[in-house]
Design a protein that fits this description.
The protein is of the alpha/beta class. It has a single domain, classed as TIM Barrel (Alpha-Beta Barrel). The protein is 39% helix and 11% strand. The strands form two sheets. Strands 1, 2, 3, 4, 5 and 6 form a six-stranded parallel sheet that branches. The protein has a two-stranded parallel sheet with strand order 7-8.
Length: 334
């Protein structure tokens, strides 16, 4: 365990997705009734600053998730509210900083700080306007999940079970403008037909911030082998997600070992350069007594230990922990 812990602490660790901001925003979140302090170790939820440090996280991607009640006409406002929550946290501590590029993450690691990178979850937030898109970029947002589970004016979400449409004309203009600005296109919630539409028009690496392999768990938000291969060919990264329903169809089989099976599978299909972490922490809950991957982010070093046991080389583990995300951030964000 000592070797695993040393490797983990030396590595740049990046988590590609969490919903923690909702827990501090009011009127929402997975744990809306539980009072939490981001700067104290909490007994509820998955993430706070002390537990991020304990888990060795260098960069936490913070989702600006647009809940259904704010769609379609109040999405931009809700996104601005969540941005204000994030910047309020940054203002309160020198140990938590904004990251907008790869070098910001390296600087945070060198200074023993945690940085947050901003991602919108639900393209409704731009309210059909490239002007709004550019404004969010200027406010620090560096990634957008084009849809959540519903259809919007960009594409179909995975919840559109009978939809067969691809990305829309407006959606194409969004992808092209995001690529021009230096923003990451996130396909984790897209329907399969819309995924392939994005793949057709994308000229730069795109990501699936929190998805697993559908060959191992049949949840529709997981990616097929063909999708995994296509995303890898574009140079992107898939962040494995810890939510039990995405890890195994049988909740009794959910475990850290089973999550690592997904890492193994993505490595086999796409190569080691295309798999990372995408916890979805604070975006799901596990009933007491039910199997889970981690109790919270503080347990993340256990993943490094498990990968070492499986025979992963140190350089491969560094890539999974954060090196692959950093490579894509360098290419797309600068």
């Amino acid at each position: 365990m000592a070797d695993a812990l040393n490797l983990h602490k030396e590595s740049i660790v990046i988590d590609g997705h969490c919903d923690t901001l909702l827990s501090f925003a009011g009127r929402g979140g997975y744990f809306p009734s539980q009072k939490r302090d981001f700067f104290e170790w909490n007994e509820t939820g998955h993430i706070d600053l002390p537990r991020l440090k304990e888990g060795g996280v260098t960069c936490q991607v913070m989702a600006l998730y647009i809940e259904p009640q704010y769609k379609p006409t109040r999405s931009a406002r809700r996104c601005l509210e969540l941005l204000d929550v994030f910047y309020g946290l940054v203002d309160q501590s020198e140990d938590f900083v904004l990251a907008t590029c790869a070098d910001d993450i390296r600087k945070a690691k060198a200074a023993d700080k945690v940085c947050g990178l901003l991602s919108i979850e639900g393209g409704e937030a731009i309210e059909g306007s490239l002007h709004v898109l550019r404004t969010f970029y200027r406010l620090g947002v560096r990634a957008i999940g084009l849809t959540w589970n519903q259809r919007n004016d960009i594409a179909d979400g995975v919840g559109e079970k009978h939809g067969r449409s691809s990305i829309t004309d407006f959606g194409i203009s969004v992808v092209k403008e995001m690529e021009r600005l230096g923003m990451l296109v996130d396909v984790s919630h897209l329907s399969e037909s819309s995924f392939w539409g994005v793949n057709e028009v994308a000229e730069r690496p795109y990501i699936a911030s929190h998805s697993n392999a559908r060959a191992l768990a049949s949840h529709p938000r997981n990616l097929t082998d063909a999708q995994i291969e296509a995303l890898a060919e574009k140079g992107g990264v898939i962040g494995v997600v810890y939510c039990p329903a995405f890890v195994d169809d049988d909740e009794n089989n959910v475990s850290l070992s089973r999550l690592c099976d997904h890492i193994d599978h993505i490595k086999e299909i796409a190569g080691i350069d295309h798999v990372g972490l995408g916890s979805d922490f604070d975006g799901f809950g596990t009933p007491p007594g039910k199997p889970q991957v981690f109790e919270d982010v503080s347990q993340l070093p256990l993943l490094t230990e498990e990968l070492l046991k499986r025979g992963y080389k140190e350089d491969e583990i560094r890539k999974v922990l954060g090196g692959n995300w950093l490579r894509v951030y360098e290419e797309v964000l600068g």
